[in-house]
Amino acid sequence: MKLLLSIIIIFLLVILQSSLYPYLKICNAFPNLILILVLILSILKGSKKNLVWVLFGGFLLDVYSFNNPLGTSILSLLLVSYLAYFFSQNIFKKTSIFSVILIGIGGTLIYKLFIIFVLLIVGISFQFTFSQLISQIIYNLVVLVPLFYLIKSRIK
Amino acid sequence: MNGVPKTKSFLLALVIIIGLIFLNLPSVLSPIKNFFYSVSSPIQGTFDQFVKQTKNSWEFLKSLREISKENIELEEKIKELMAQKVELKEIEKENELLRSYLDLPVYQRYQIDLTNVIGRDFQGLEKYILIDKGRLADIEKNMPIIVFENILIGKVIEVFDDFSKVLLINSPNSKIPALIQKSRTEGLVQGIKTNILFMDLVSRDIKVEEDWIVVTSGIGGVFPRGLLIGKISQVESPENEMFQKILVEPAIDMDKLERVFVIKKQK
């Protein structure tokens, strides 16, 4: 039941992201809701518990992003999820706003760069600007930080 | 570490995903994608409608304050347009005469099909849209996509049963044989930024000015001749380069596409 609910939420979030993108984008960037939730769940619950978010969320991001070969976002989210959990458990012993921001910046950077890396290997051309990357990091942080504390308070 | 998946299953998942990326089998993936687009299409339509309505209400509230200022501006504009109307009447007559000698408009020359935009590339790494007609509606790869009567926005690059993926002209992957209408100079237009196109291969010794119109040249056979691409917004002629640097502003904002036409074939 919980799994089905997660799948429905992921599906709706991806469609919402696709609908809102043209209206709320800044420098071609819009908060990646799936990435944000994967980061939050990795910090709070560990990377094993959010596997459905990584697999189904990543799958849908690839299906609806049109450019990525299927599997690119899954792999990128898998890496980001593992690293977020590792850093939150081993480097930042106590979760603070500072550590959430750092994981948000690092997570977005690694996610984006990894996708670019895969596209380069597979030989698919793409558009990349630093302004878009910076805008994406800031936009993700604006959603990530309040959402992290909201979900944290609910989980408790 | 309890939160980390077991190494074996982790490695297995990794191998499957990497395999998926490199195999990238369109015949297998196409029906899966078509299924998800079919399921999401009505939900996305509802979301889109809601977002548009909210945006329109917000813009209406914002515009109330500016209405009186706009009124004065519009009155001025009316006077200006009245003068232009007279001039255009003359051009229209001339145009009708020339059209009878030359080509007919696109919608008379070609069979066109109206489709709805139901998805957009939201990862910001490329420029695609998804339209709600595909193979079953006789859509084929490379068919040009236009809005209004003749504004080019892209071409079909992947066809599913009920949907098609369109590569927009502002994508760096899009290369369109083009023509500067006034000077009849040919070149190649490609996307560089969100709403800026770059026209290449125009020699330095050819006169090019801002605001000149760029249309498709018809070379290559993919795009019919005379589709509007945009107008020239910037021209540079670096001394040490063979070609001019010409920036073209697309005739339409690619983010605001709702309904588009597919040019199917010659009548």
Brief description of this entry?
The complex is a heterodimer of chains A (about 160) and B (about 270). In chain A, about 80% of the residues lie in helices and about 0% in strands.
Description:
The complex is a heterodimer of chains A (156) and B (267). Chain A is mainly α and 156 residues long. Chain A is globular and about 45 Å long. Chain A has six helices and no strands. Helix content of chain A is 79%, strand content 0%. The two termini of chain A are 21 Å apart. In chain A, 47% of the residues are buried. In chain A, helix 1 packs parallel to helix 3 (51-65), helix 2 packs antiparallel against helix 3 and helix 2 crosses helix 6. Chain B is of the alpha+beta class and 267 residues long. In chain B, 36% of the residues lie in helices and 30% in strands. Chain B contains four helices and twelve strands, in the order H-H-H-H-E-E-E-E-E-E-E-E-E-E-E-E. Chain B has a six-stranded antiparallel barrel. A six-stranded antiparallel beta barrel of chain B has the order 6-7-8-11-10-9. The mean pLDDT of chain B is 83. Chains A and B meet through helix 1, helix 3, helix 4 and helix 5 of A and helix 1 and helix 2 of B.
Topology (SSEs and partners):
The complex is a heterodimer of chains A (156) and B (267).
Chain A: H1 2-24, H2 33-45, H3 51-65, H4 72-91, H5 97-122, H6 130-155
Chain B: H1 7-23, H2 26-64, H3 67-101, H4 106-109, E1 110-120, E2 128-131, E3 144-147, E4 151-159, E5 164-168, E6 175-180, E7 185-193, E8 196-200, E9 213-216, E10 228-236, E11 245-250, E12 259-266
Antiparallel strand pairs in B: 1-2, 1-12, 2-5, 3-4, 3-12, 4-5, 6-7, 6-9, 7-8, 8-11, 9-10, 10-11
